[in-house]
Amino acid sequence: MSRHRERTGEAVISVTSAQPGRSEDLDSRIVRYAWMMSIRIVCFVLAVVTPSPWRWLFVVGAIALPYFAVVLANAHRSSTEPAAEAYIAPSGLSIGPRPTVVVAQDENPPQDPSEAPRTDTEK
C-alpha cells in the first residue's frame, strides 16, 4: 500500500530537515483509519453475539469509534522521523592562510625625485 521504496543498508545524506512527503503521510493515515474501522466491525459483531451487560459496551464502542477514528487519523504528528545528521564536508583540500606581500625597503633611497616610487597621495 505504501508508495515509497525502502532502502536498507545505504547511507542516507540529508540536505534538509523536511519531513516525509504527503503521500507517505496519507498512507499512514489510511492505515490508522482502517484499523479503527476494523475494531468497529468487531464491536458490531460482539454486540450481536454477547449477552446484555457487555452488549451495551460494544454498541457504545461501535457508535463512538468513527469519531475517534477520524480525529486520530487526521491528528498531525509533529515529527514522524528523526532528523538525519547534517552533512559535513571532509576537510581535505584547502588553500590555507591568505598570503601576505612583503615589500623590501631600499637601504639607499634614490636621490633623483623622478626615480622615487610614487605614493597614493602624489598625483
Fold and architecture overview:
This protein is mainly alpha-helical and 123 residues long. It has 2 helices and no strands. Helices cover 41% and strands 0% of the residues. The longest helix is centred in the N-terminal third of the chain and has 28 residues, at 22-49.
Structural class: mainly alpha
Number of E-type strands: 0
Main beta-sheet strand count, sense and barrel state: none
Order of helices and strands: HH
Oligomer classification? single chain
Question: How much of the polypeptide forms β-strand, as a percent range?
Answer: under 5%
Tally of DSSP helical segments = 2
Uncertain residue segments = none
